[in-house]
Amino acid sequence: MYYTYAITGLTLLISFIINKQKTIKAIKISFIKFKKISPTFITMLIFVSIILFLFPDEVISNYLGNSSKFISVLLASFIGSITLMPGFVAFPLSGILLTKGVPYMVLSAFTTTLMMVGIITFPLEKEYFGVKVTVIRNTISFFIALIVAIITGIFFGEIFL
Amino acid sequence: MKKNVKIKITYVAIYILFLIVSFILGYNPGKEIAFNFISFLIYMLKILPCAFILIGLFEVWVKKEVIEKHLGEESGIRGYAWVILLAGTIAGGLLVAFPIAYSLYNKGAKLSIVFTYVGAAAICRIPMTLYEASFMGVKFTAIRLLVSLPLVIVTSILLENYLSKRNYKMLEGR
What we know:
By secondary structure, chain A is mainly α. Chain A is 83% helix and 0% strand. Chain A folds into 2 domains: 1-38; 55-155, no CATH class. In chain A, helix 3 (57-65) runs antiparallel to helix 4 (69-82), helix 6 (104-116) packs antiparallel against helix 8 (131-155) and helix 7 (122-129) crosses helix 8 (131-155). The mean pLDDT of chain A is 91. By secondary structure, chain B is mainly α. Chain B has 2 domains: 1-47, no CATH class; 62-174, no CATH class. Chain B is 83% helix and 0% strand. Chain B has helices at residues 2-25, 28-61, 64-71, 76-89, 94-106, 111-123, 126-136, 138-165. In chain B, helix 2 packs parallel to helix 5 (94-106) and helix 6 runs antiparallel to helix 8. Chain B is globular. The mean pLDDT of chain B is 91. Chains A and B meet through helix 1, helix 2, helix 5, helix 6 and helix 7 of A and helix 1, helix 2, helix 5, helix 6 and helix 7 of B.
């Protein structure tokens, strides 16, 4: 996180030294763009706050730990698709689940859908790409995640061919 | 459009009212939702200003010809390599990837490159990948990257082919 601040600050400073007017224009553009999209961010935050309430860590652990591997993979990709979690929360959680005996392929399905499929970010994504492309991109990503999970399962000896 | 805004304001108002009432009555689910909202708001406010400032600087400084040449129609394999490298170094995941992808597109990057950027921003940010490997093991992370990245590129190309036949254009003025 901090290196992002450092890079942004440094870039801004260099830009300012080279051309003051252009830099001010850039900041104006940033501000206008941010302002335009901020209502969508608020909408998304409202969804996030409710979804995270319905699916707290304990509930996720319960779902992923039970039943058969294949049902768990499907459940994991479903939960990963509808929730939104920063990596610094998701990976420690997955690490704990791993020590509890949850298969790698289930965690792979969970983390990959978490990162690639965003049902919660749908309102935001459609503002830029339009509804149709957003639906297509998320559907493709969901299947990519399933393929990743299956191959993970094969390599970790959880699926026997 | 006006009606849409009214509906939005109404449900945001209901949401806020629900949270306030929850606090007054000590209703725990409401409090938890408020806590989730605030913690995610803080998380986003940490990343978004940086991202949007960089987008602003990008819009002002980077010439359209440069993007067209390196990430446009004639860019070839190198374009994908560039854009994956770019995705790997920018923090923030999908939330930040959408506005950046949009700016790239408006500067003349081709669609398959734009979608590759979004996919790569989701799965192969370098700091996150290192973090993942420390919890899940290098093998797990390596499999995930080696399988998903080629699939992202291939599906992005297919998606571009599909969309360009239908004269797809991204929305304007975002």
